[in-house]
Amino acid sequence: MENVNWLAIVVATLSTFVLGAIWYGPLFGKPWMKENGFTEEDLKNANMAKIYGTAFVLEFIMAVNLAFFLNGLKVQEGIIYGFATGFGWVAMAIGVNYLFSRNSFKLWFIDAFYFVISFTIMGAILTAWT
After folding, report:
1. Distance (Å, rounded) from C-alpha 82 to C-alpha 66?
2. CA 35 → CA 16, 51, 52, 97, 103, distances in Å?
3. Phi and psi at residue 28, in whole multiples of 5°?
4. Distance from chain centroid for Cα 22
5. What is the CA 108 to chain-centroid distance, rounded?
6. CA distance linking residue 10 with residue 42, whole number of Å
7. How many C-beta neighbours within 10 Å does residue 90 have?
8. C-alpha–C-alpha distance, residues 5 and 126, integer Å
9. 125 Cβ contact partners less than 8 Å away, ≥ 6 residues apart
10. What is the C-alpha separation between 45 and 60, in angstroms, rounded?
11. Most buried residue, 71, 82, 94, 101, by CB count within 10 Å?
12. What rounded mean pLDDT belongs to the chain?
């Protein structure tokens, strides 16, 4: 554990958090809401402190886990392995769940590719700061 850069992990976590604000805000917020059957009122009535706080903790755990896998790699490798993690594991796992829960392809794309991009960026950050 002493070989990982904790500052890089925090920055990688923040990058995922910021990407989520953009991804689920101006980029895909309205289609995501429609695919989930949410209204603006639903979002206003949600416990946002709990949602954002828990999301941050989960994203931190993801960054820590990825840091252990990428420890000692070059930036190019971090980007490739970050992408492979997001696409090959996370997006495909979400795809399997969405097939059985009968969620739309559009919702799968929005949710899965958020993680593809998140893990790619985290891979770059975590390997650039080692």
Report:
1. 8
2. 22, 19, 21, 15, 8
3. -130, 15
4. 12
5. 13
6. 30
7. 19
8. 8
9. 8, 11, 12, 15, 78
10. 26
11. 82
12. 96
Q: What CA–CA distance (Å, rounded) separates 79 from 124? A: 5
Residue 1: pLDDT band with limits 50, 70, 90:
low
Average pLDDT over residues 90-109: 98
* CB atoms closer than 10 angstroms to residue 93: 12
Q: Hey, what are 67's tokens?
A: 């840091």
Residue 1 DSSP label:
-
- The whole-number pLDDT of residue 3 equals 83
Q: Which residue has the tokens 């828990």?
A: 54
Tokens of residue 124, six digits: 């770059």
Q: Where do the structural domains in the chain lie, given as residue ranges?
A: 6-128
Q: Is 102 left (phi over 0), alpha (psi -120 to 50) or beta?
A: left
Q: Please tell me the distance from the alpha carbon of residue 20 to that of residue 111, in angstroms, as a whole number.
A: 10
In contact, 83 and 119? CB cutoff 8 Å: yes
